[in-house]
Amino acid sequence: MPDDQPTLIEPLDQQRVRVASLWSSWQIGANLLWAYTGALAVDLGATGVQQSMVTGVQTLGNSSMQWVWGSLSDRFGRRPLLLLGLLAIGITAALIPLAHNAVQLIALLLVPTIIGSASIPAWNGLLGDLTTMKGRGRFVGLITAIGTIASAIALVIVGYFATNLGLAGITQYQVPMYVGAISIGIALICVLVLVETIQPSRQRLFQIKASIQGTHRFVHFLVVNAIFFAAMGGAWPLFPILTRGILHIDLFFIGVFTAIFSISSGIAQLTGGTLTDRFGRKPVLFVSRAVIFTVPVFHSTAAITGNIWFLIPSNIAGGFLTGLFIVSSTAWLLDSAPKIHRGTVVALFNLVTGVSAFTAAMISGFILDFLVLTIPYGTVVITMMFTIAVIRLFASMGYLTINETLVKTPAPTVTRIPSPEKAP
Fold first, then answer.
1. Which end of the chain, C or N, has fewer beta carbons within 10 A?
2. d(CA 179, CA 172)
3. Contact 188, 182 (CB under 8 A)
4. pTM across the whole model
């Protein structure tokens, strides 16, 4: 049974305030970086395969090293890994404006996705250290919602200035990248004042067997998610191609639509925490995956009609459902892992889903480049989007087969003792 006591190195409320500040500045910087790299790749003339590589580098790079980072986080503590990962992300955001072609962009993105991914399992382990099973969903929802909403506000403001400062071409991307680098710098300061939540241990590194000991359900959970993330990843390189290459949306509206996604995700994370603690992880996980097929449908409708406002319901649905998944999947994973292996377990999950999504994204790029040789570009993208929507719907059925991890305490049984005068 996982160790479910929060770490009390200092007053818990004080530590949680620092964690919220860290997450907010981190999310502002990271979202400014990732919201615009897909559009930048389109403007740099990326092919379908190169666009898939931009997405794939983010996905696979973030996940491929997390097994190493997760084990190191469990062995040496959360703070060192958070510092290393955030430093890599900040440096990359500052260097991105120097890219002059898609190949250079892909090379630059390797840094935050491989080294920067060190912060992800450390962060998830930190959340587990500060919570118990009973209130974990609500706390995770609150912290992530704060960061998501903060980044949404930043996206709109930065997108407006990037579009209206008179910068032309790819120089517009300097604004979000430099602001993102500054925000990551603030996150680094927050880590420096954060108190370590676990003591360095002498456990052996990379203990896969120990991390998932007695949890056959975890292996099943990995398989279900691997299948579904393949359905997700196939569409990821197509989104920036559709929005920037076909609909020609400017940086301001990219920021607006991404902000809508983020706000919707934040709202879902606030409510999703309570829902996962009340109804269980499994029902919320299923709903969050079963309905997300609507996102490529809305995007395709926008391309067919030429009406960008269809992207509003697309981003509302995508953000809300993603928020529910973040909270419920994080709670599910933390419920299933012993405290000293939480970083490792989260890393393994991200590795499996990342490889799956990367593979699907690359296949999608190859199919796109092959089909556009004989079929109009827009027709290919739209047809692929609708196909992926159907695949997502069927793949989501796998979540009906996973186990519930929330252990509900039964209400105490009250035995009524008959009064003497009514006793037989």
1. C
2. 12
3. no
4. 0.81
